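Lab notebook, design round three. We kept the backbone fixed and only want residue identities now. Task for the bench partner: fill in a sequence for the structure below.
Input structure tokens:
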């Protein structure tokens, strides 16, 4: 391959990646937890999978449900309801795992129900109110409130869903699990 065609190929690949980023801009994967609908920027979402068997990790936070094997890669799984200090519910056929990339780590988020992909323009995103109990519980993970038609979606900051101790505990358990296999 000549240098010109190789360079052209790399330029086209870069252009395709830029086009994909532009297509994802302002798009959010929404899901239900409790009575609220939440949104996560679609760029963080790798895939959505059916609920599957989870290997528990002893001595971790209650919202860290354990580890799953996703096509040979072991990833930690978090129950979003428990992370938000909501009452646990029985998992059913609508429960699924949203696989996301957070801080260069792949994590599964157990959600009650996937809603839809919505586009929320920047001017329709408001900062969360700073009154009452907004700094406690689920609201410390919310960076904005997206207006979608007549409804609102609480927009989540995925970096805040997991703290660094959670990530390191899950990664250490991941290493141990892989050594045992």
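Proposed sequence:
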């Amino acid at each position: 391959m000549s240098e010109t065609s190789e360079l052209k190929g790399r330029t086209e690949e870069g252009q395709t990646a830029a086009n994909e980023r532009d297509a994802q801009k302002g798009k959010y994967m929404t899901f239900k937890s409790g009575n609220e609908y939440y949104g996560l920027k679609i760029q963080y979402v790798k895939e959505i999978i059916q609920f599957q068997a989870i290997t528990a990790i002893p001595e971790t936070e209650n919202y860290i449900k354990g580890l799953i094997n996703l096509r040979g890669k072991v990833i930690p799984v978090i129950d979003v309801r428990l992370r938000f200090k909501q009452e646990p519910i029985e998992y059913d056929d609508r429960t699924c795992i949203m696989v996301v990339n957070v801080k260069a780590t792949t994590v599964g988020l157990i959600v009650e129900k996937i809603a839809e992909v919505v586009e929320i323009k920047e001017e329709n995103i408001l900062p969360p109110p700073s009154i009452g109990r907004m700094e406690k519980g689920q609201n410390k993970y919310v960076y904005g409130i997206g207006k979608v038609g007549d409804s609102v979606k609480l927009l989540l900051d995925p970096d805040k869903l997991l703290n660094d101790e959670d990530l390191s505990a899950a990664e250490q358990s991941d290493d141990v699990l892989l050594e045992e296999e």
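Keep this in mind before ordering anything: The domain at 26-180 is CATH 2.40.50.180 (OB fold (Dihydrolipoamide Acetyltransferase, E2P)).
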